[in-house]
Amino acid sequence: MAELLSYKAPARVNLIGEHTDYTGGLVMPMAIGFGTVATLTPREDGIGTFRSENYGETVEVVISTLERAPKGHWSDYPVGVLWSLTQAGFAFPGFDMTLKGDVPLGAGLSSSASIEVATAMALLGLIGASMPLPELANACRRAENQYVGAKSGIMDQFIVAGGVKERAMLLDTRSLEFELLPLPSAARIVICNSMVRHAVSSAGEYGSRRDEIEAGQAILQRVLGIELLRDATLEDLAKCKGEMSPEVAARCKHVITENARVRAAREALRKGDLAEFGRIMIEAHASFRDDFAASCAEVDTLVEIAQKQPGCLGARITGGGFGGCTVNLVETAHAEAFREAVRAEYEKATGKLADCFICEATDGALALAAKEAQ
Ligand code: GAF
């Protein structure tokens, strides 16, 4: 029987540092227990097939003639990874790959990076190759940016590939240096899904925010020679405000203050000061809602409900915005009751039933033993 290769890549939640990762800024995500399993059997005829167990569909490609041709279909993600790896010089003899995932879609938990990284690991496994973490993350990001056409940053692919159990990761998205931060046991991370779907697409709202940030960054560069927003201060922004629309200035203010909040959150974690960490999360949500204007009514309601619950230290939107999930820091003793109360109150307020999960930080992508893969 043909050899079966199987890899699992997790999803992620970002604790703080939103929309900072495409201007060289700081983020603090962790990998979580949802994920995608890519299982592959080799073939030798130059054909690659991708089957999605979730969609019940199979897509076939001729590897040697693969060109950039996104279809707006789930298969763009794995085919994009194959394209990206062939562009990077890897050659594949052929394969049948099956993808199966349980990451909630459109929830801001990065189902796309999970598919990309699982696919990349399986393809590299097929030819006995491996890539250092930054290169693997960048290859998957290229699939998303250049093949799928979504202008995301590097955060998701990096944490999905490189997450570490029981640790959050402070990642500098310019240097790709990172620090692993232990999560104190006194509090739990609870994710609540507003059930409002979001999409990271270039044409959509994520892309329009990114365009605004790039417009602001270009002005900072022209006026002050500052290349990346990550190096700008609020004083720099004030000097350029006359040249920017109020919207662009507000979006840049969010990014500048968010980088400062990630640094402050790291200090709070290092000191074990969870109350301070939670306070910073609440500030981050206000900045995302008011300056970045990328929240939505349901997510704001979810955050407000969370903040009123006993033991809730912090609550904010996580991911690209315009729907999706909140991430909450809740004292361990209150976490179960928090989950139930938030669900009940959110249903009363919106008629929607939020899925809420108490999460652990997990390892990033890894090979599965044959038994686990079945
Ligand atoms: C999405 C993107 F894919 C990330 O790169 C990041 O920009 C995030 O939104 C916002 O912080 O997940």
TrEMBL record:
Keywords carried by this UniProt record: ATP-binding, Carbohydrate metabolism, Cytoplasm, Galactose metabolism, Kinase, Magnesium, Metal-binding, Nucleotide-binding, Transferase
Domain (Galactokinase N-terminal) ranges: 7-40
Gene Ontology biological process terms, A to Z: galactose metabolic process
One GO MF term: galactokinase activity
InterPro entries with a match to the protein in the record: Galactokinase, GalKase_N, GHMP_kinase_C_dom, GHMP_kinase_C_sf, GHMP_kinase_N_dom, GHMP_knse_ATP-bd_CS, Mevalonate/galactokinase, Ribosomal_Su5_D2-typ_SF
EC number(s) per entry: 2.7.1.6
Pfam family, one: GalKase_gal_bdg
Domain (GHMP kinase N-terminal): residue spans on this chain: 77-161
Domain of life of the source: Bacteria
GHMP kinase C-terminal domain span: 265-347
GO cellular component: cytosol
Protein family according to the UniProt entry: Belongs to the GHMP kinase family. GalK subfamily.
PANTHER family for the chain: GALACTOKINASE-RELATED, MEVALONATE KINASE/GALACTOKINASE
Name of the protein: Galactokinase
